[in-house]
Amino acid sequence: MSGGKSPVPLFKDGKRHDGRGPMDLRPIEMKVGVLNNANGSAWVKFGRTEVIAAAYGPREPPKFMSLPDRALLRCRYHMAPFSTDERKNPAPSRREIELSKVIREALETVVLTHLFPRTVIDVFVEVIQADGGTRTAAITAASLALADAGIPMKDLVAGIAVGKVDGHLVLDIDQIEDNYGEADMPVAGAVNLDKVVLLQLNGSLTPEEFNKAMYMAWEGIKKVYALQKKALEEKLRKEVNL
Fold first, then answer.
1. Which CA distances in Å does 203 have to 4, 135, 165?
2. How large a percentage of the chain has pLDDT more than 70?
3. Does residue 4 sit in helix, strand or coil?
4. Is 170 within 8 Å of 22 (Cβ atoms)?
5. Bond into 58 cis (ω within 30)
6. What are the tens digits of pLDDT across the range 53-94?
7. Would you tell me how many other CB atoms lie within 10 Å of the CB of residue 84?
8. Which helix (H) or strand (E) holds 9?
9. Which of 14, 50, 160, 228 has the fewest beta carbons closer than 10 A?
10. Which residues form the Exoribonuclease phosphorolytic domain (predicted)?
11. CA-to-CA distance for 172 and 179, rounded, in angstroms?
């Protein structure tokens, strides 16, 4: 969030700047198995935000990285230089390093790493185009890539962000709402486990607003989760019909 005055009205007559209502998600698309050279892969699109994820492993790591009781899960979140309006430096930024850690920790809650001691599982997430909600799109794609790779998990992880714009709580914020809103709350959860695995808040919400935002986020997560399952089922159906 950068604050300041938005170049367009963010909320007017019950509608957001792009015509959506407060609970409306952007158009969402998902595909799995999009990369030939990865064990598992996924492409996820939330509005104009596009993310691709690749998963590799379990495979043997360098000995100094080996853990005796479980697999080492590594994650890299990266924004392509062409993903933003201004060319981004290709070197990893502090934000990208932080989000790599946040995504890894969220995924560790569902991946059954204890089944693969002394191995490593790698997840690479590349933001192709950024228009808000990249971290939640990234964790959604990463979870799908792991599932596509056949990595055993307790559940899928789906993510969505709730924002506060012009005093109103709205679901699945885009870049302009993120830039000029008063709060941004990314949330990710495992629906079948009924568990929140990622929760961050930039800005401030009252206790009442926070409770309402969590309700909105969970309703959005359930919709994203259903689309994840549909994407996996579509790939399986194609494989069965070959």
1. 14, 17, 11
2. 98
3. coil
4. yes
5. yes
6. 999 999 998 877 788 899 999 999 999 988 877 777 777 789
7. 15
8. none
9. 14
10. 25-152, 155-217
11. 13
Question: At 128, which amino acid appears?
Answer: I
What number does CATH give the domain 11-241?
Answer: 3.30.230.70
Domain boundaries of the chain, sorted by first residue: 11-241
Alpha helix positions (H), the chain: 94-108, 134-148, 175-180, 207-241
Q: The pTM is what?
A: 0.93
Comparing CA positions, the residue from 69, 66, 91, 65 lying closest to residue 80 is 91
Helix axes 134-148, 94-108, angle to 10 degrees: 50
What is the C-alpha to C-alpha distance for residues 111 and 108, in angstroms, rounded to an integer?
5
Buried b (16+ CB within 10 A) or exposed e, 16-34: bbeebebeebbebebbbbb
DSSP 65: G
Amino acid at 217: A
For residue 158, what are its two tokens? 């789906």
Contacts 24+ apart (CB under 8 A), 20-28: 20/170, 22/168, 22/169, 22/170, 22/171, 22/216, 23/170, 23/171, 23/216, 23/219, 23/220, 24/171, 24/172, 25/160, 25/171, 25/172, 25/220, 25/223, 25/224, 26/172, 26/174, 28/224, 28/227
